[in-house]
């Protein structure tokens, strides 16, 4: 069985079980399920003058926006994983990236977009990279378990973010705790009207392509792969294992930082204090669905973003809370990593099938 | 009615792994109770699989096993233990942080009320078993602190504690010195005389001759010979094992004037993180075109010496120079750039990345230099062509350059590792156990390559537990014992027995650092 | 008696009692983490186990009054407690099945189950109470507190043993302490402890010795689930008397950190759990001063990271000392 079919099966099973859960908490499970599955699609209608008109573009946009963020945080998980490092730090890196981009954009004030945008972009990448670098150094210098340190660094990052947004960058004129709106020159304009689909939707696949090239064709990429495959061997062969590991963390962090830039300078255009953490965990799902293959990340992100946007549509349309998508997400994770599940399920299915055939 | 009751009987046993590999096919042989029986064959001939099936670690896909006449369908080792079968595995299976007594009783512990472990009874039981078998060990010692030979005794005690009547030993002498081997053989004969049945795997034919009453030869998963020891000679067995005649040993170096040394190590000493002295006062010289052999029982400092010389550890005292330049105490990469190459002791642990392709494994030491990379970009085409050339030139059995190296046999993997290490024509090669676990044909090929490298003028340090290999290849041999060089010989002027005595500290010269 | 001394002692006792209370859930979970870690299975799902246990405990104790209106009042919290332990253990059992039977990576499956727990608890809470935040609208019960009679008036000791409100400590605080001793003892002195440690340290050796390795790993994971459930039940039925979304708030991960920090030994793990408890109490105390809440919340994670670094540095210094002694021996002829 191919890997793709296995994953499709796992996702299908997770959706089916998710439907069962929905059926338990609502009396209109079909409506909820339909909203979940068709939510992100725009609908087309022929208007009075005969032209095709697209409706619900907002959600379609939301799908692409979400996929963009997810691709970038997926990179933040997948790159350290090539060095066999289990980084859960994309969350903190994203917050630091968003904060750095927003702070710089506000600090620069009125400058041309050609200056503001690249600088904010770089600031986000560097802030994320720095946060990843910290976890990498803790691992290589002090052998501190990266699962623990990245989780702890996430907490610190979120609190630093809230401290600075709430007490330094706070806009007292807004009705809630938030930064002032970012200057227009520092924000990205939409590619699709009425959505926040910006140039970042092209940056994400470009980033993936760059990382694929890096891993496959550069000496640094080779070092990261070798350090992950067998660090003892890599060390004896003369590969700078610690440097490769730290750089994998930092590089991953840079992309999570860019996801932060996407959130602050493309999606929200200002940063509220209560920006919800958790995007990092979503990155794990995406990296997992791609089975560690960087080139498959955009596809996995599109698929998973579809589900998330569908869940929002479902929550609006019915009384099923969007948390049901957490359940589906968890089931996808569990089913995808259970290597022996699919053969087991298919095997017993086949046996049942044969027994039916025999009795019939 | 048979005359002697059969302890073990295999009837047309087949083992096919889920991935399709056929490890055994049509294997039938019998072992009488009280017999010492040898199972011989090359690596990969399927000997270990037979052992695993007898011990419940694997289940045969066809055929039947009988233990003392009863059909044995072992699902896990617990079943085998209950049937009176015990296994002393090749890689010793002990829990390092536990004591000898705890390891011996593990799984069959004496208890006090409340599920408590009765440590006093456990120690008493070990002393009792020691008394019966003559295997000397201290029940209170922590296993981590014991040398390999003693750990093996613990394994045998473990088997005896479970009341095993049939004892399986998988390559028990691979890690032992000649005197330790002699002790082990005496113990096994003692146990057989007391009614135990012993089945021992080995590929050393002299051991078979010395120990076994009967022998079964496996080749490529099938039985190719089955005989009473009295009826066969070693030559016959060797042909049965390999399926063809053996290649001749590589030619010795022509005697000539010794050149000025290329590698000079002086006063090397190393203290590990526990404060233990692992190496002291080690000095030697290796001339171009010379192989210096290092003999020693595992754990007497060879691994540390190899690490120091390849830049993987920093010597506490002393240094080593290659063509006048110090290459120790730097880094693996720095040592390599000065012309040092290394074949590490454990190829799966630090000699290769089993999950990566042949190409990626070959690249490991040369990826950062032209022609394989320029300005940080790897030239994948050149790398692939190089890998294809190596596969052809070294007669490696592989499906192609992108096959994971871990899927290859030990011999093929080792050929690739050696190919990688000698690709840059190193001035100094440190080769640790270069043919361990490698079949005879591949070992011969590896030896030829080492000799060819020597003839090109490289200096070689050959660290090996295989005394035959050392005696055939080395020009001079030094013996390491407890971190010191305790004896030095010209290769032609020493035999395995003398080396063995020095390796265990029993050499005729006074111990210590006295100079003559 | 010197009044200052009493005041200082009382203040210290208040902090100590609060630390104990704050450390109890982490202590439970870290004991669980320790047991599965020693069996060779890192249990990342401690967080989810605590959540599920807290939720099941709170909901069951509240609904128990509807299901068994005639039952005596004291029974409801205990029914909740049993349900919480059962639910949490079941989640750990699910982790065991996914890892041991279906070949799932332990860490990823653990994270998956944490997400599942987070989603399911909120989903069911919203379904049952119509509120996605907490179960404040339900009348749930707390497990009883044990109050030492007759020492309320004794300075310092009274506060220490019965808390600053003289209500006594929750029974689970005592259970946690008892469990600590029991587990430390059992790991060292029982056959089960020996087998568990052997399995975790060298599974191949354990298998060759005929030990039921898979069953031992099940035991390790289920026991870790049971213990972490104790922590979860305490959160919902002792520390607070309701369930909140994401109530475990990272304590499961902290507990895992405590296991590593404590060098995978019982005593070390307990000390680390107490340090984390003290850090959160300190954070709360600082919060009463003019220190921003955000800074306060940074303290526990920073303490964790600092502790990991310090432990490593400590080991390094010890190694260096030993090596220096060896070096002296090497240099002396």
From TrEMBL, chain A:
MF terms from GO for this chain are: transmembrane transporter activity
Kindly give the InterPro entries that the UniProt entry links to this protein.
Answer: ABC_transp_permease (IPR001851)
Where found, per UniProt? Cell membrane
Q: Where are the transmembrane segments?
A: 60-81, 93-109, 115-138, 197-215, 241-263, 284-306, 326-349
Bilayer topology term = Multi-pass membrane protein
UniProt main location, coarse: membrane
Pfam families given in the database record: BPD_transp_2 (PF02653)
* UniProt keyword list: Cell membrane, Membrane, Sugar transport, Transmembrane, Transmembrane helix, Transport
For the keyword Transport, the answer is: yes
Q: Which Gene Ontology CC terms are recorded?
A: plasma membrane
Instruction: State the PANTHER family in the record.
Output: ABC TRANSPORTER, PERMEASE PROTEIN, GUANOSINE ABC TRANSPORTER PERMEASE PROTEIN NUPP
Please give the name of this protein: Simple sugar transport system permease protein
UniProtKB/TrEMBL annotation, chain B:
For this chain, one GO molecular function annotation is: ATP binding
Q: Can you give the residue ranges of the ABC transporter domain?
A: 8-245, 263-507
> Which Pfam families is this protein grouped with?
ABC_tran
The record ties this protein, via SMART domains, to:
AAA
Q: Which SUPFAM superfamilies match?
A: P-loop containing nucleoside triphosphate hydrolases
UniProt-listed InterPro entries? AAA+_ATPase, ABC_carbohydrate_import_ATPase, ABC_transporter-like_ATP-bd, ABC_transporter-like_CS, P-loop_NTPase
Instruction: List keywords of the entry alphabetically.
Output: ATP-binding, Nucleotide-binding, Sugar transport, Transport
Coiled-coil positions: none
Which PROSITE patterns does this one have? ABC_TRANSPORTER_1, ABC_TRANSPORTER_2
Protein name per UniProt: Simple sugar transport system ATP-binding protein
The organism of origin for this protein: Nitrospirillum iridis
Q: What is the lineage of its organism?
A: Bacteria, Pseudomonadati, Pseudomonadota, Alphaproteobacteria, Rhodospirillales
Automatic annotation (TrEMBL), chain C:
Predominant subcellular localization, coarse grouping:
membrane
Q: Is the keyword Transmembrane in the record?
A: yes
Keyword Transmembrane applies: yes
The protein's UniProt keywords, in alphabetical order, are: Cell membrane, Membrane, Sugar transport, Transmembrane, Transmembrane helix, Transport
- Topology with respect to the bilayer: Multi-pass membrane protein
Q: Per its record, what are the GO molecular function terms?
A: transmembrane transporter activity
* InterPro entries, sorted: ABC_transp_permease (IPR001851)
Matching entries from Pfam families are given as:
BPD_transp_2
The cellular component terms of Gene Ontology attached to this UniProt record, alphabetical and capped at eight, are: plasma membrane
The subcellular location is: Cell membrane
Q: Where are the transmembrane segments?
A: 46-66, 78-100, 106-126, 138-161, 167-187, 221-242, 248-263, 293-311
Report the PANTHER family cross-referenced here. Answer: ABC TRANSPORTER PERMEASE PROTEIN (PTHR43370:SF2), SUGAR ABC TRANSPORTER INTEGRAL MEMBRANE PROTEIN-RELATED (PTHR43370)
Q: What is this protein called?
A: Simple sugar transport system permease protein
């Amino acid at each position: 069985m191919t890997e793709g079919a296995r994953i499709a099966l796992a996702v299908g099973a997770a959706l089916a079980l998710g439907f069962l859960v929905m059926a338990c908490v609502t009396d209109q499970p079909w409506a909820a399920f339909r909203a979940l599955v068709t939510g992100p699609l725009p609908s087309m209608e022929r208007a009075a003058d005969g032209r095709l008109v697209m409706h619900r573009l907002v959600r379609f946009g939301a799908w692409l926006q979400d996929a963009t963020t997810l691709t970038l945080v997926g990179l933040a998980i997948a790159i350290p994983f090539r060095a066999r490092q289990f980084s859960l730090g994309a969350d903190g890196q994203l917050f630091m990236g968003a904060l750095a981009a927003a702070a710089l954009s506000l600090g620069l004030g009125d400058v041309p977009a050609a200056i503001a945008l690249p600088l904010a972009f770089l600031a986000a990448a560097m802030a994320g990279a720095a946060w990843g670098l910290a976890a990498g150094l803790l691992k290589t210098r002090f052998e501190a378990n990266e699962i623990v340190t990245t989780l702890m660094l996430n907490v610190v990052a979120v609190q630093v973010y809230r401290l600075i947004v709430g007490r330094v960058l706070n806009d007292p004129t807004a009705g809630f705790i938030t930064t002032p709106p970012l200057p227009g020159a520092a924000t990205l304009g939409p590619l699709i009207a009425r959505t926040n689909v910006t140039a970042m939707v092209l940056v994400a696949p470009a980033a993936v392509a760059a990382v694929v090239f890096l891993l496959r064709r550069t000496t640094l990429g080779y070092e990261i792969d070798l350090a992950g495959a067998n660090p003892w061997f890599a060390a004896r062969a003369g590969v700078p294992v610690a440097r490769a590991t730290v750089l994998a963390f930092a590089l991953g962090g840079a992309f999570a930082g860019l996801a932060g830039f996407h959130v602050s300078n493309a999606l929200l255009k200002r940063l509220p204090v209560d920006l919800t953490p958790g995007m990092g965990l979503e990155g794990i799902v995406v990296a997992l669905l791609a089975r560690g293959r960087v080139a498959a990340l955009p596809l996995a992100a599109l698929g998973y973003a579809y589900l998330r946007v569908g869940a929002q549509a479902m929550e609006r349309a019915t009384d099923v809370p969007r948390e049901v998508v957490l359940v589906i997400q968890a089931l996808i994770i569990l089913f995808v990593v259970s290597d022996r599940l699919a053969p087991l399920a298919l095997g017993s299915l086949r046996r049942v099938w044969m027994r039916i055939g025999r009795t019939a | 009615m048979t005359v002697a009751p059969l302890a073990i009987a295999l009837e047309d046993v087949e083992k096919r792994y889920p991935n399709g590999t056929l490890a055994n096919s049509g294997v039938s042989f019998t072992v009488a109770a009280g017999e010492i029986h040898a199972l011989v064959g090359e690596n990969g001939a399927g000997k270990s699989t037979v052992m695993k099936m007898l011990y419940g670690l694997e289940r045969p896909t066809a055929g039947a096993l009988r233990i003392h006449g009863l059909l044995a369908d072992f699902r896990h080792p617990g079943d085998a233990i209950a049937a009176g079968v015990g296994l002393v595995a090749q890689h010793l299976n002990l829990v390092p942080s536990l004591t000898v007594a705890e390891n011996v009783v593990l799984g069959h512990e004496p208890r006090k009320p409340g599920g408590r472990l009765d440590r006093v009874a456990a120690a008493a039981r070990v002393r009792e078993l020691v008394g019966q078998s003559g295997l000397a060990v201290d029940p209170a010692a922590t296993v981590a602190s014991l040398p390999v030979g003693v750990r093996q005794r613990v394994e045998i005690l473990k088997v005896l504690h479970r009341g095993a009547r049939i004892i399986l030993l998988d390559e028990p002498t691979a890690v032992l010195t000649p005197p330790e081997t002699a002790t082990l053989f005496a113990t096994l004969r003692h146990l057989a005389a007391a009614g135990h049945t012993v089945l021992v795997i080995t590929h050393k034919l002299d051991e078979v001759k010395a120990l076994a009453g009967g022998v079964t030869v496996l080749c490529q998963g099938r039985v190719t010979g089955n005989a009473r020891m009295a009826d066969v000679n070693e030559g016959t067995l060797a042909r049965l094992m390999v399926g063809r005649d053996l290649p001749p040993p590589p030619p010795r170096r022509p005697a000539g004037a010794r050149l000025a040394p290329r590698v000079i190590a002086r006063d090397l000493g190393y203290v590990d993180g526990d404060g233990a002295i692992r190496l002291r006062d080690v000095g030697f010289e290796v001339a171009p075109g010379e192989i210096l052999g290092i003999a020693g029982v595992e754990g007497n400092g060879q691994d540390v010496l190899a690490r120091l010389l390849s830049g993987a550890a920093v010597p506490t005292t002393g240094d080593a120079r290659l063509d006048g330049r110090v290459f120790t105490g730097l880094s693996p990469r720095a040592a390599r750039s000065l012309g040092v190459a290394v074949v590490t002791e454990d190829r799966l642990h630090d000699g290769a990345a089993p999950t990566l392709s042949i190409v990626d494994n070959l690249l490991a030491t040369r990826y950062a230099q032209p022609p394989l990379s320029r300005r940080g970009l790897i030239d994948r085409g050149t790398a692939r062509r190089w890998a294809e050339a190596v596969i052809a030139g070294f007669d490696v059995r592989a499906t192609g350059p992108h096959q994971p190296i871990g899927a290859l046999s030990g011999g093929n993997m080792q050929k690739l590792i050696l190919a990688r290490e000698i690709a840059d024509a190193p001035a100094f090669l440190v080769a640790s156990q270069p043919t361990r676990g490698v079949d005879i044909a591949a070992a011969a090929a590896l030896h030829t390559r080492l000799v060819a490298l020597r003839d090109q003028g490289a200096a070689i340090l050959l660290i090996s537990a295989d005394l035959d290999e050392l005696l055939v290849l080395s020009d001079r041999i030094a013996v390491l014992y407890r971190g010191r060089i305790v004896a030095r010989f010209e290769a032609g002027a020493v035999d395995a027995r003398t080396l063995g005595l020095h390796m265990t500290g029993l050499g005729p010269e006074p111990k210590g650092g006295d100079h003559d | 008696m010197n009044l200052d001394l009493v005041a200082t002692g009382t203040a210290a006792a208040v902090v100590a009692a609060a630390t104990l209370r704050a450390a109890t859930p982490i202590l439970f979970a870290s004991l669980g983490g320790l047991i599965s870690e020693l069996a060779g299975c890192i249990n990342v799902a401690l967080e989810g186990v605590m959540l599920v246990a807290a939720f099941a405990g709170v909901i069951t104790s509240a609904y128990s009054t509807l299901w068994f209106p005639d039952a005596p009042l004291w029974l409801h919290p205990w029914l909740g407690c049993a349900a919480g332990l059962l639910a949490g253990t079941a989640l750990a059992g699910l982790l065991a099945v996914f890892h041991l039977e279906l070949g799932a990576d332990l860490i990823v499956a653990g994270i998956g189950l944490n997400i599942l727990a987070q989603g399911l608890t909120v989903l069911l809470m919203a379904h049952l109470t119509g509120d996605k935040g907490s179960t404040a609208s339900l009348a749930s019960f707390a497990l009883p507190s044990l109050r030492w009679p007759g020492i309320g008036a004794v300075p310092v000791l009274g506060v220490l043993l019965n808390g600053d409100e003289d209500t006594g400590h929750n029974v689970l605080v005592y259970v946690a302490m008892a469990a600590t001793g029991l587990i430390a003892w059992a790991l060292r002195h029982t056959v089960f402890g020996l087998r568990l440690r052997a399995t975790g340290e060298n599974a191949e050796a354990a298998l060759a010795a005929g030990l039921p390795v898979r069953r031992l790993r099940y035991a390790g994971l289920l026991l870790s689930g049971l213990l972490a459930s104790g922590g979860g039940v305490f959160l919902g039925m002792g520390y607070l008397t309701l369930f909140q979304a994401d109530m475990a708030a990272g304590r499961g991960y902290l507990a895992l950190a405590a296991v590593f920090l404590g060098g995978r030994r019982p005593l070390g793990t307990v000390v680390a759990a107490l340090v984390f408890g003290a850090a959160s109490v300190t954070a709360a105390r600082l919060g009463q001063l003019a220190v921003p809440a955000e800074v306060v919340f940074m303290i526990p994670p920073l303490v964790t990271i600092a502790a990991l670094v310090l432990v490593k540095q400590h080991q390094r210094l010890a190694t260096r000392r030993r090596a220096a002694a060896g070096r002296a021996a090497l240099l002396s002829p």
